[in-house]
Structure formats: structure tokens, C-alpha cells
TrEMBL record:
Alphabetical keyword list: Repeat
One family name in Pfam for this protein: PPR_3
Residue ranges with Polar residues bias: 1-13
SUPFAM superfamilies reported for this sequence: HCP-like (SSF81901)
Protein name: Pentatricopeptide repeat-containing At1g74900, mitochondrial
UniProt record similarity statement: Belongs to the PPR family. P subfamily.
PPR repeats: 134-168, 203-237, 238-272, 273-307, 308-342, 343-377, 378-412
Length: 490
DNA sequence: GCCGGCCCAC
């Protein structure tokens, strides 16, 4: 069978050029429709500059589904402008109409680019097509506002939801509180909670979210107060409530309290589950209590609670960090023998462990092994390996891994660029500075905003090595990004 | 997964 690329670039495009409408109908009527392959589609979009060519190719494919769109968007996630281009082109497809979740993804991408004009245009388009916006849409927008430091804007968004044709209810209220809490705004969330808890009839979930918010800030006493208030108002804590507090104690470094709380939970009627055990295994391991963590792990099976992949991941990570990679790999093998399928996290943990132990080659072996379990290295996987190569001074290998990732349909993210750019200064070679400059341009192109520090580092390097011309180019890029120091003149 | 466990970096 032909690959999609061959299919669309050699067969479909030329014939479409000759008879646009007819040939696409003709195509779907006689030949079986091409099997759209998300990787090939993403690659085509990435390497094609001409937007009309992309349009022709995308419109030629007739069997678009929301799932396929979602997969392609995920692949283009770290190239926001291209992802939006893809979404917009498909939006003009003669037969395909975007789904509500498709719009949500596009809105998420635009918001991440801080392109709020596009965000609200998409919201309006969504509404005019009667696809929403839904509470989920607003949770996405609020989350992006909060994470770019505009918490007040996020609050306004929530309060104005109904003006966009989306009713506020307990679910959207809880989702919104969660957004604030997850970005460490527990105090703000709690204020809003107190204002609106009557109107939305706040439930156990609302309280759990707030308590978790304080736990994330290591304020376990505040979390407890909130829960006490919950009980006084007649709501009953759930197992999730207890698991949140348990995790909170570990996070705050209150290990004694955590352990005591765990023992109490075992005695209570609410019982404990696999999440409880995973929390304890991880929490104990992180503070170096490896033996105790192992004991808890062994104990759970006896208690009739089966470990999940996450439980194994917790133990493996703990062994990597506080014991020895070899012991971690023994557990990894044991997990396989028991019939569990490792996930990306399992691999990432093992790979990090091997890198940390200086065993880069074996780390790469595990990267190759991932496909046996139907998973692929993700950007975090590559970042780990690239980072350790950089730390070892193996810059060529780091760059080779960068090539491998871009060739293998995995787009670099902000971390990848930061790691690579900063390592381009250690060898003091002028060639490396050119690479740094190139990477800087590429990352901006893909919608990432470099720090001021990064711009200055690259600029200084280029100026010192006599690359005035290139430096000027970077400088104008920096001004377009709004990252120039105050009072700076071009 | 409407809230809770496992990847996180300098």
C-alpha cells in the first residue's frame, strides 16, 4: 500500500489540479479511500510552506474523523502556528465539520500561544455552529490565563461564561476552582468558593479540590480546617478526601503524620485502595525509606489490593533515586512477568535512572524497547536523554538525539530548546553559537517564548564571535517577541 | 478521573 505522502503528493494533487471537484469525487467513488495516517499528515503539514498545497492535500482526504483530527493536532502540539493552520484549513473542508472537542483543542493551542484574539474568535465560531462553548472550553481558557499570570482574567472568564451561552453549574464551578488550585492559587480559590458555595451548592468534590489546593502549597493545617468545615456542614469525606490529605502530609514533609494517618485509614471503615498504597510507596521512597516502601508494596497484595502500573512506577522510581537502578530493573522485569504492560512513565523512569547511573547506552536500549509495549518515546523521554548527554559534554550525541526526535515525528518543546541552547555555550565555539541562534529562531517560529536571559546569552555570544549580522537578526526577533530590556534602542 | 496515586527539569 502506498504511504499517505505518496498517495497525496503524487496521485491526488496533480489530478486535483486538473479537475478539482470532479477528481476528488471520482477518487472516493472508485478507489478505496486513502487511509489517513496521522504521522504522515503531520509531517506533510510541517514540511510544506505553501498553504494552498496543504489545503489541496487535506481537502483531498475525505474520511476525516474527530479522532484523526485530534491525533494530528496532538502531533502538532509543539508547533502551535502549524496546528492552528491545520485546524483552519480543515475548517473549510467541503465535507468535514469540526467537532466540539476539535474546537476545544484549537482554543487550547491558541491560548497557549497567548493569541487571545483567536481564542475568542474560535469561541464565537463554536457558538455560531451550536457546538458550545462548554464548561470544558472555559476551563481550558481559564487555565491558560492563570498559567500566564492572569488569574484575575480567568475569574472574569468564569463569571462571564453565561454571556457566551454557557450555563454555570456545580461542575463548571468545581472545574474552575481546580484550575486555580492546581496553579497554586488556593487562597484565591477559597475566597471564590466562599462567595459562591451557596449558589452552586458546593459538594464534597468542591471541598476536596480546595483541600488539595492547600496541600499543594504544603499548608496541611489549612487543608484540615477546610475539611473540618465540610464535616460541620454535613458533608461526608470520601476515600479521595483521605488520599488527598495523605499525599499532602508526604508533600509537606510530615512523614510521621502521614504514616499515622495511613494507619488510621486502615482502621477506618472508608478503607484504602490502590491510590492510597501508591501514595505511601512513593511518599516513603522519596524521603529515602526504601525498605519501608517495599514492605508496603508487598503488604498490599496480602491485603487484597492489586498494584497498578502506577504503583510499580512509584516503586521503580524510588529504587532508581534512592537505591540502585539494577534493583529498579529487577522490579521492572518482575512487573513484566506478572503480565503488566509498562507505560510511557515506566520507561521514562527507568531511562532516567539509567542515565543518572551513567549508563547512557542502556538507556537508549530501553528507548528502543518501548515499541515492544506499543509506546513511543515522548518529548519528555528525549529531553531526559538529551539533558544527560549535555551534562556529560556529549554535545554531538545530544544533537544527534535531537535530530532523531524531529525525524521521528516528535516535536521539541520549550524544555528541549532551553537545554540545547544553553549547552551551546560550553565549548566556546563560534559554530555552536550559530546553532544556538538557529534554534532560537526555530523555537520562536513554533510559538515558544524564550526568556530574556536566553536572548541575551545568544546575542552576546554572537557579538563576541563577530557575527554582527546574525546578532541583528536575533535582536529584531527579540523586539517582535516583546522581550527587549526596557529603554532598549535598536 | 468532575477531586486523589506514577515522569519534572534548571
Amino acid at each position: 500500500m502506498l504511504s499517505l505522502r505518496e498517495n497525496i503528493s503524487q496521485t491526488a494533487v496533480p489530478s486535483l489540479k486538473a479537475h478539482p471537484k470532479r477528481s476528488s469525487l471520482h477518487h472516493s467513488a472508485t478507489a478505496p479511500p486513502p487511509h489517513p495516517e496521522p504521522t504522515a499528515i503531520a509531517k506533510l503539514i510541517l514540511k510544506t510552506d505553501n498553504s494552498e498545497t496543504i489545503t489541496r492535500n487535506l481537502h483531498t482526504l475525505t474520511n476525516w474523523t474527530p479522532h484523526l483530527v485530534h491525533t494530528v493536532l496532538k502531533r502538532l502540539w509543539n508547533h502551535g502556528p502549524k496546528a492552528l493552520q491545520f485546524f483552519n484549513i480543515l475548517d473549510t473542508h467541503p465535507f468535514y465539520a469540526h467537532s466540539a472537542t476539535g474546537f476545544d483543542h484549537a482554543i487550547d493551542i491558541a491560548a497557549r500561544l497567548r493569541d487571545y484574539k483567536t481564542v475568542w474568535a474560535l469561541v464565537a465560531r463554536m457558538r455560531s455552529r451550536k457546538l458550545g462553548p462548554s464548561p470544558k472550553t472555559f476551563a481550558i481558557i481559564a487555565e491558560r490565563y492563570v498559567s500566564s499570570g492572569k488569574a484575575d482574567k480567568a475569574v472574569k472568564v468564569f463569571l462571564s461564561m453565561h454571556e457566551h451561552g454557557c450555563s454555570q453549574n456545580l461542575n463548571s464551578f468545581n472545574a474552575f476552582l481546580d484550575v486555580l488550585c492546581k496553579s497554586k492559587r488556593a487562597e484565591m480559590a477559597y475566597k471564590l468558593f466562599n462567595i459562591f458555595r451557596g449558589r452552586f451548592r458546593a459538594d464534597t468534590v468542591s471541598y476536596n479540590i480546595i483541600a488539595n489546593g492547600f496541600c499543594l502549597k504544603k499548608q496541611t493545617p489549612r487543608a484540615l480546617e477546610v475539611l473540618k468545615e465540610m464535616v460541620e456542614r454535613g458533608l461526608v469525606p470520601t476515600l479521595t478526601t483521605y488520599n488527598i490529605m495523605l499525599k499532602g502530609y508526604f508533600r509537606a514533609g510530615q512523614i510521621e503524620e502521614a504514616w499515622g494517618f495511613f494507619l488510621q485509614m486502615k482502621r477506618r471503615k472508608v478503607g484504602i485502595d490502590v491510590v492510597t498504597y501508591t501514595t505511601v510507596v512513593h511518599g516513603l521512597g522519596v524521603v529515602g525509606e526504601v525498605e519501608k516502601a517495599r514492605k508496603v508494596f508487598d503488604e498490599m497484595i496480602g491485603a487484597g489490593v492489586l498494584p497498578s502500573v502506577a504503583t510499580f512506577n512509584a516503586l521503580i522510581q524510588v529504587l532508581c533515586k534512592k537505591d540502585n537502578v539494577e534493583n529498579a530493573i529487577i522490579v521492572f522485569e518482575e512487573m513484566l512477568r506478572k503480565g503488566y504492560t509498562p507505560n510511557v512513565t515506566t520507561y521514562n523512569v527507568v531511562i532516567r535512572g539509567l542515565c543518572h547511573a551513567g549508563n547512557m547506552d542502556r538507556a537508549i536500549e530501553y528507548m528502543d524497547k518501548m515499541k515492544d509495549d506499543n509506546c513511543k518515546p515522548i518529548v519528555q523521554t528525549y529531553n531526559v536523554v538529551i539533558r544527560y548527554y549535555c551534562d556529560d559534554g556529549e554535545i554531538e550525541k545530544a544533537l544527534a538525539m535531537f535530530e532523531r526526535m524531529t525525524g521521528g515525528s516528535c516535536l521539541p518543546n520549550l524544555d528541549t530548546y532551553n537545554i540545547l541552547i544553553s549547552v551551546m555555550f560550553v565549548r566556546k565555539r563560534s559554530d555552536d553559537l550559530l546553532v544556538a541562534g538557529k534554534l532560537l529562531i526555530e523555537m520562536v517560529d513554533r510559538g515558544f517564548l524564550p526568556r530574556k536571559f536566553t536572548f541575551n546569552q545568544v546575542l552576546n555570544g554572537l557579538l563576541l564571535t563577530g557575527n554582527q549580522g546574525f546578532a541583528k537578526e536575533i535582536l529584531s526577533l527579540q523586539s517582535r517577541c516583546g522581550r527587549l530590556p526596557r529603554h532598549f534602542r535598536l
